[in-house]
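Please annotate the following for my students:
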Amino acid sequence: MTLILIEGFDGFTDSNSVSIESRVGRFYSRYDSDNTLRSYSGHDAGSGNSIAHVESASSAWLWMYPPGGETNDVWTAGFHFYIPDVLSTTNPFFRFCQANVAGFSDGVQLQFAGSGTIEINDGGGTQLAVTSANTVSANTWHHVEVQAKCNSTTGYVELRVDGATVASVNNVDTTESGSEEWSCVALCAPGSVLYQMRFDNLYICNDQGSTNNGFLGECFVHTLKPTSDAGTNDGTPSTGNDHYAMVDDAEPDTDTTYITVDTDGDKEMFGYETLSINSGAPVLGIQMASVGARRTAAFAKLKHVFESGGTESSQNSHTLHGTANYMGVQQIQESNPDTSAAWTESEVNAGTFGVELDAS
């Protein structure tokens, strides 16, 4: 596994006047005492969503851990961002965070400086490198990629904006405390409630394996919803006969419509909306995301199933904790289980995808 996190923020669909912390919190950790995460229109021609902090305090951030819990010393992250007005220089807007630290410890920070520059700082705020003036501007979507090695002596950082390297530094201390491995990234409020920075189309990969192990270039996350039952539908819908109609919400409605599975090995498989991407563009990976809850105190786990050409993948199970709240479960599949090669657009559209109950 080298592509370890994909997030398009399209599943968090409330209007920008309504807090979405509880919804985001099903999948990711956050600290935002004033409940100020919001959903806005996304980068892709107004389709989909982006996410933003609208809190001026420095104590507003979203920790994004890979669903598989991977930690590595070299990570690359990419995302689109947009500032609707003046670039706030008060706080960092992005951080790489170290493993085995209570809360987080950030060894690398990105922070806006004057005249449209971006600073690369260490965890203490000391500048390691800086871009030239007018690298970024307000009222514009930019694409950022940053690669960093977590090491006290051989650490390095390379920053790219809109496909070009704009700053880099080598053989520096990129650690703060904890293990010399990254465990999550933090998306932060840059420091002004008036100028909310929006994030979209986030990826994280490590340097392991032979593909998706470095800078991936500008990437787009397409979020697809179920549109049909795929034949193996062992659960019980909360109403009606169409299983997919219980789980096709843009934002999961939890106890309003749902499917109950109660026997070990029960599956719910679906056909999905059509993926339509630019001709020749690669599919770097698929991430399934589901929301589930336990109905009883009985031990239960959920795993995702990716099927293509009659071949199913084997995925790790994720424990559903407690019975009071719904939690998010995610899983990435970089290759087609039928071909062991990268997915193609047509294979995604012909495949079926779903979940399986592991009650063992």
